[in-house]
Structures are given as C-alpha cells and as structure tokens.
Design brief:
By secondary structure, this protein is of the alpha+beta class. It has three helices and three strands, in the order ββαβαα. The protein has a domain of 88 residues: Double Stranded RNA Binding Domain (2-Layer Sandwich), CATH 3.30.160.20. The longest helix is centred in the middle third of the chain and has 20 residues.
C-alpha cells in the first residue's frame, strides 16, 4: 500500500445529485477529490502505470477526479473518495506479470490437424461424384 500525501489532494465540497428532500438544495455534502498524477510524489513507474489506465476518472492531463456522494455527511464522502483513490493507486502499484510464451502440446496439435482432416473429408463428400 502506497501512501498518498494529503497536501497533493485538492478537495471541493459540491452539492450531491439525486433525492434528498429540502436539505439537498442548500447543503454541499458531496466531496470531489482532485489528484494530479504527474505532479505527485509517487514513483515514476507507478505514475506511468496510472496514466496508462483506461479509467474515465483520469483526465487527459493526468488528473484523477473522484466524486463521492454515497453518504449524507461530507466527512463520510471524503473518506469514501480517499478510499477509492487508494484502491486505484494500489491496483496500479503491482507491476503486471510478464507473459511467458508457451507452445501448444503435441496432442493439441494432433487434435487440430485431425479435425481439419475430418472437416476436409466432410467437404469433399459434398462434391459431385464425377468432380473429385
């Protein structure tokens, strides 16, 4: 687990969407988190893996924007947004495993050729009797 520095996170309190009664129109209880990946103190390899992710929360400039509005309190939404950012970073922290190229087994090659031969025999059986 890689720690994210608190001073690198920019917080904005915004109004939550959806139902909520009279209170929803006057209280900003949703939290928006902004985290600039290129300007962060994360290791360079981790920055590159984060920027390579195809996540719609990451902008073209490399800023992660997470909007949390699941809970009714701003503090809980902040914790939720921070947890989601941490999950994103932790997911990119593990380098992808190198793919080891494998060869097909001899029996799988034999099965493949046998099915090709059988298919060819079926097709040749469809030809007119005098055209073989």
């Amino acid at each position: 687990m890689i720690a994210i520095a608190a001073h690198e996170i920019e917080w904005t309190a915004i109004r939550a969407q959806g139902a909520g009664g009279q209170n929803v129109n006057k209280v900003s209880n949703a939290a928006q988190l902004r985290f600039n990946i290129p300007a962060s103190t994360l290791p360079q390899a981790l920055k590159e893996r984060l920027l390579a992710l195809s996540d719609r929360r990451i902008t073209a400039q490399g800023v992660v924007i997470i909007k949390a509005q699941r809970h009714r309190s701003l503090d809980q939404n902040r914790d939720d947004a921070l947890a989601r950012l941490q999950t994103l970073v932790d997911g990119a922290a593990d380098p992808p495993r190198e793919r080891k190229s494998t060869r097909p087994t001899r029996s799988s090659q034999r099965r493949r050729v046998d099915t090709k031969v059988r298919r060819g025999q079926i097709k040749s059986g469809r030809a007119k009797v005098g055209d073989e």
